[in-house]
Amino acid sequence: MSSRSMRAGAIALAAVMMSSMVACSGPSASEKASASFHNSVSAARDALFEEAKATTEGFFDLDESLGLQGGAEELPAEMDQYVMGNARGYVERLTQAIHRDGERTAPNTKAILIGPKVGLLR
Q: What does the alpha-carbon distance between residue 26 and residue 15 come to, in Å, rounded to a whole number?
């Protein structure tokens, strides 16, 4: 056997041994860090989604309550946690119009938000 083929055989054997040692040692530190990062991003995204869901439900519950009462001359202070700026003004004017016109939301109905379809950028 030539020294060249012996060297190639030794390199191949070393590669096999190293790959089996890596396979036995478990995930590398960078793989563990990557998994940890993805888990924390996922947890943060889930927490943010739950907060957004609670905020949306809180707003619609309060808005529905105001509609059932026949609106109001001014928004209750609790609404400030859900809307601010121009949005607060829009909600307040709508609530005032309902109150002024003597309208009420029909019982057992739910408000829905209709807007543009939002897609994810990839």
A: 17
